[in-house]
């Protein structure tokens, strides 16, 4: 063995221990760096040599040549990464839902003294008070005030829900942009990792950055990840590869006429299937768009749209039912002709010309202009308050106001359908009414009821309703379809109702040139035998339950992720105590290697300077 070989062995030892010291220092420097993975130097014995000049059969064996650094590797467990990313998507989803439900809970604001339920209670109570004192202008002013407060509460809640929906819609677009940024970064990192890997080196820090991005992306949507021999990752989402080697596919958004964004693939324009993660939670909160690519039955939970629908149901039911009763009453102003047979009650709440064109009843809800301008137009009485000679007789018995107050308990319109139309100004009784009306229903063509001229004129609206009822009961088409329609009258209003939801209303009415009926289809839609207060209470409690569930699921996911992260850190995290111990270990080995070189140097000094000096 050459003495110079000892120098090489010592040099290798110093070099490798120095590399280990540098790696340990790198670990310490990144102890608080997010996503950093502890690195270690893989040391292995260098290739040995046979004893030179001695046959192998008689030699002592191979001579070691020191140490070499096999690699610098990351200490990371793939299984833990897989579990964290799997739970990340669930955690991201429930955090989005929790955030949205907490905002919804603030909007509903129940139970409270300023919530919708309290405002409705005050509204019904004002009608109760008016039924006791129908002549009181002060009580009438309170009815107007509280009716206006109820309408404004519905308006405000509707606006808050739509604002929240719009805000979430904007967040969907922002989230897509964030995902695209991560996708392109992953593609670029794949390129860098490939360039370093093919040269035989380990791009450890680049892989840490890549894995951190994968953790972030897994929180936004459901993804699956595979890694090739060069360290490049392929990422799948929604049935497509968003990252494949050095290529990537990004997302985009397409908006419907209402400005609601649908998530699509940027290259094809086809809808992207997102079912989990933060983006999935946002989509469940906001609901689907009106674009053609969306399914007829939504794949999302439609949390906010359903609440808006329920709010509209409440508003529509209160408006229609209150108006139907109010139109059958008499006001203090006595605006109708006593000979007409009709009361002078108007709509208490404003009604659209064509109710079928209105979906956002909570936003539309407002008091009728006549009520706002003069509280005496409130029709609280069932009888005229003045006689035909315009002489005061009484203020009525307040029975109409009482009936409206009782809606608090009876406004439980089921899923039946209703059509109605005012005949005021069209018919005057006694009247010989004749003509046709068309009944519309699903599952078959419409059918026509023909009303022949009676032998004797109808004396009032009740007689006309009875004649129409007879025609409906005798109709074979309706009988075959299993649809039973009941006709009733309320003030100057004919009401057509059916417990069969197939009934779509009355149209094309021609009664002595009368105008067509306005089809108020599917009025209400609330659960049968449930009052309006109970219906709203069930909505509020349902939101509370959903909010608690989201908070519980989010907390559970947080606990699970925290446990998994602790496991990851126990394997991959930097322990300063451990790194300090390694510093001492590698420093001692470095010092020993340096001492070994000193010994070789002394041997060389002896050979060079002292050998061959005998006899001098």
Can you describe this structure?
Helices cover 49% and strands 14% of the residues. With 616 residues, the chain is an alpha+beta fold. The longest helix is centred in the first third of the chain and has 61 residues, at 137-197. The chain contains 15 helices and 16 strands. Helix 2 runs parallel beside helix 5. The two termini are 30 Å apart.
Radius of gyration: 42 Å
Poorly predicted runs of 5 or more residues: 412-426, 512-529
Estimate the mean pLDDT confidence.
84
Structural class: alpha+beta
- Oligomerization: single chain
State the helical fraction: 40-55%
Summarize the structure.
The longest helix is centred in the first third of the chain and has 61 residues, at 137-197.
Give descriptors for this structure.
616 residues, alpha+beta, Immunoglobulin-like, 3 domains, 4-stranded antiparallel β-sheet, 3-stranded antiparallel β-sheet, 15 helices, elongated, structural molecule activity, bacterial flagellum, FlgK_helical, secreted, Flg_bb/hook_C_dom
Topology:
Layout: H1 3-29, E1 39-45, E2 49-50, E3 62-63, E4 67-74, H2 78-108, H3 116-132, H4 137-197, H5 204-220, E5 223-227, E6 233-237, E7 240-244, E8 247-248, E9 251-255, E10 261-265, H6 277-286, H7 303-326, H8 361-364, H9 369-373, H10 399-405, H11 407-410, E11 417-422, E12 435-441, E13 447-451, H12 461-473, H13 476-481, E14 486-490, E15 493-498, E16 503-511, H14 532-572, H15 576-610
Antiparallel strand pairs: 1-4, 2-3, 5-6, 6-7, 7-8, 9-10, 11-15, 12-13, 12-16, 14-15
Helix pairs in contact: 1-15, 2-4, 2-5, 2-6, 2-14, 3-4, 3-10, 4-5, 4-6, 4-7, 7-10, 7-14
């Amino acid at each position: 063995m050459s003495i110079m070989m000892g120098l090489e062995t010592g040099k290798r030892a110093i070099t490798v221990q120095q590399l280990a010291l540098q790696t340990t220092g790198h670990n310490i420097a990144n102890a608080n760096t997010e996503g950093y993975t502890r690195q270690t130097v893989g040391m292995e014995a260098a290739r040995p040599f046979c004893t030179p000049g001695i046959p192998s059969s008689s030699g002592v064996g191979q001579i070691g040549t020191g140490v070499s650094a096999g690699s610098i590797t990351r200490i990371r467990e793939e299984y833990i990464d897989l579990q964290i990313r799997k739970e990340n998507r669930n955690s991201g989803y429930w955090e989005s839902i929790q955030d949205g439900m907490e905002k919804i809970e603030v909007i509903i604001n129940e139970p409270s003294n300023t919530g919708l339920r309290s405002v409705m209670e005050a509204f019904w109570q004002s009608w109760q008070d008016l039924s006791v004192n129908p002549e009181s202008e002060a009580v009438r002013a309170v009815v107007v005030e509280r009716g206006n407060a109820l309408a404004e509460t519905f308006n405000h809640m509707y606006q808050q829900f739509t604002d929240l929906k719009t805000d979430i819609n904007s967040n969907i677009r922002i989230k897509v942009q964030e995902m695209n940024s991560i996708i392109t970064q992953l593609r670029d990192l794949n390129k860098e990792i490939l360039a370093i890997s093919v040269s035989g080196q380990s791009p450890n820090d680049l892989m840490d950055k890549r894995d951190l991005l994968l953790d972030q992306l897994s929180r936004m949507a459901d993804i699956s990840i595979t890694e090739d021999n060069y360290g490049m990752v392929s990422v799948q989402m929604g049935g497509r590869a968003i990252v494949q080697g050095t290529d990537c596919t990004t997302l985009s958004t397409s908006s419907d006429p209402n400005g609601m964004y649908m998530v699509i693939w940027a290259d094809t324009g086809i809808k992207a299937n997102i079912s989990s993660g933060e983006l999935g939670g946002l989509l469940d909160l906001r609901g689907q768009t009106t674009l053609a690519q969306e399914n007829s039955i939504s794949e999302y939970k439609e949390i906010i749209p359903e609440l808006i629908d329920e709010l509209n149901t409440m508003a529509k039911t209160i408006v229609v039912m209150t108006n139907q009763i109010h139109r059958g009453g008499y006001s203090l102003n006595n605006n109708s002709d006593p000979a007409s047979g009709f009361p002078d009650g108007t709509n208490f709440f404003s009604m659209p010309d064509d109710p079928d064109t209105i979906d956002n009843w909570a936003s539309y809800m407002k008091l009728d202009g006549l009520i706002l301008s003069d509280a005496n137009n409130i029709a609280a009485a069932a009888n005229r308050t003045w006689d035909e000679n315009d002489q005061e007789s009484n203020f009525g018995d307040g029975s109409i106001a009482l009936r409206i107050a009782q809606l608090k308990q009876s406004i439980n319109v089921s899923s039946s359908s209703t059509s109605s139309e005012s005949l005021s100004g069209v018919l005057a009784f006694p009247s010989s009414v004749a003509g046709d009306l068309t009944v519309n229903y699903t599952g078959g063509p419409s059918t026509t009821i023909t009303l022949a001229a009676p032998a004797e004129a109808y004396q009032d609206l009740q007689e006309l309703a009875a004649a129409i009822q007879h025609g409906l009961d005798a109709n074979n088409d309706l009988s075959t379809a299993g649809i039973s329609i009941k006709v009733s009258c309320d003030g100057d209003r004919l009401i057509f109702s059916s417990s069969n939801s197939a009934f779509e209303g009355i149209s094309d009415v021609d009664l002595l040139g009368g105008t067509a009926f306005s089809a108020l289809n599917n009025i209400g839609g609330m659960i049968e035998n449930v009052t309006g207060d109970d219906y709203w209470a069930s909505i509020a409690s349902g939101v509370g339950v959903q909010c608690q569930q989201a908070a519980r699921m989010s907390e559970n996911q947080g606990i699970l992720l925290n446990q998994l992260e602790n496991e990851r850190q126990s394997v991959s995290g930097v322990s300063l105590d451990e790194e300090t111990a390694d510093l001492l270990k590698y420093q001692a080995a470095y010092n020993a290697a340096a001492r070994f070189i000193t010994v070789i140097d002394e041997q060389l000094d002896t050979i060079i300077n002292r050998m061959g000096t005998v006899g001098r």
